[in-house]
Amino acid sequence: MLVAHLADIHIGHRQYGLDQRAEDYAHTFRRAIDKILELREEKDIDLVVIAGDLFDTTRPNPNAYVTVVDCLRRLAEAKLRVIVIRGNHEAPILNPVDNPLKVLASMRLVRYLETDYVDVGNVRLIGYGCTYSDLQNKLYSAISTMIDPNKVNVVLLHQYVEGTPCSYMMMNLDYYTISKKVVSKLLESSDTVFLCGHIHDHNVKHPELPVYYPGSLEIWDSREFETYCLRDSKLVKVREQATKGFLLIDISESSGKVRVTPVQVETSRRMVKVELEYEDVDPVTFKRDMTYLVENFDIPQAYLQIEVRGRLRRGYSSRDLQASTFRRLFKKAIRVDVKLDLEREHDRDIRKRTEAVSNVYYGIDTIIKRAIREVLKGDPDLDKIETLLIQLLGKVEEGDKSAVLSLLERHLGLTIRHEMDISTLLSGRRR
User: Fold this and answer.
1) 342/206 Cα distance (integer angstroms)
2) In a 3-state reduction of DSSP, which class is residue 426?
């Protein structure tokens, strides 16, 4: 059986608040459908699986529905069955009944599996909608009752399986992480393959288990951008824009063995990041470098993100750099965002005083570190998590909300509005 495995399409996603990016996500999905239909003629694809987050929201707008319905109709006309499961973006986890995928199922464009299965030849496809990590015992119980030991079982999940390599930091703390022990236990009873979503890196496999991720079809955040550093007044490319696409999964109906072929899909727009790092920056130096970027890097129709990190020269504040003024000088790019993460001399003085106070109060940093190490013992990201938490606590104690938000944005891949309260932030923490 040959399966086209897609996930994390996120139709309707207005990335960075741009209508153009919502259109980009739609165009890229159409290109993926073109590719599937082309491969259908060459390789005789049997089935299309979408492992969650077809839509970006529980309430897709009309344009999102039109895009998805049009694409699915093209697959139906080619006699290709489509099986979908629910991701974390498409329905409230605790109330999955309220779900846009049911509209597609009612139109007979997809077979929607919530906690259900469908048999195709000697293959049983088992779908389980995205759920919280602390409900993974329930997930295990439900899937184990649906597994048929006499068939090859394909489990569709929109979850991160512990230990899967990816570019996101601290995935083991994600709301939707599943222990690899749960997956290993499910593998004991039969030949089973897991086709998953939620990780946006293209063509990822768990190092020990038959767990596969196609990644998102479009660029999701700045870790995937085409990236440059400004060194000695010259731009140096340090990373190409990430590869995107889906997977062709060839599953033997007799042995359950799998052969995976990644298929690239061209993304819709150049997404570019420029990193400026300074040991000691003043408005004159910043103006020189930003002028250089305006004159040499105003890329037509690109989204450009400029990240400025380091230290400010004594006597200056971030406002003195007038970053918003330079941002408006770019005319060809669809949008330019300038993110400042600069430390002032005043900040360093506060940190030194904070460290001194901490030492007086029984070495509070040491106490926190010991607690983190006890709770996250053995976690591969322990050092990174420890460093981030200590940094956050320091900025909170200083009352520097801007620095706290910058740290969170950088490490969690979120765009946080300064007026967000904690409940809004948590409800928006989705991939």
Assistant:
1) 37
2) helix
CB 162 within 8 A of CB 168: no
Q: What's the alpha-carbon Rg for the chain, to the nearest Å?
A: 24
Residue 313 sits in the same domain as residue 383:
no
More confident residue, 353 or 310: 310
- Band the pLDDT of 422: cuts 50, 70, 90: very low
Question: Does residue 8 come out as left (phi exceeding 0), alpha (psi in the -120 to 50 range) or beta?
Answer: left
Given 292, 312, 343, the domain boundary residue is 343
The answer to whether position 236 is within a domain reads no
Residue 349 lies in a domain: no
170, 318: one domain:
no
Cα separation, 359 vs 292, whole angstroms: 45
Q: What is the pLDDT of residues 348-367, one digit of tens each?
A: 554 554 555 445 444 556 66
Phi first, then psi: what are they for 75, rounded to 5°? -65, -40
Mean pLDDT of 377-398: 70
Task: Classify residue 6 as exposed, middle or buried by CB count within 10 Å of its CB (0-12, 13-18, 19+).
Answer: buried
Residues 293 and 383 in one domain: no
Q: For residue 237, report the phi and psi dihedrals to the nearest 5 degrees.
A: -75, 130
Question: How many domains does the chain divide into?
Answer: 3
**Phi, psi at 172, each rounded to 5°:** -65, -15
What mean pLDDT value characterizes the chain? 86
Same domain, 166 and 184: yes
Q: What is the DSSP string of 226-269?
A: EEEEEETTEEEEEEPPPP-EEEEEEE-TTT--EEEEEEE---SS
Domain that holds residue 21: 2-229+242-264
Q: Do 158 and 301 fall into the same domain?
A: no
Q: Identify the pLDDT of residue 26.
A: 97
Say whether both 148 and 295 belong to one domain: no
Identity of the residue numbered 183: V
Question: Same domain, yes or no, for 18 and 67?
Answer: yes
Q: What are phi and psi of 386, to 5 degrees?
A: -60, -45
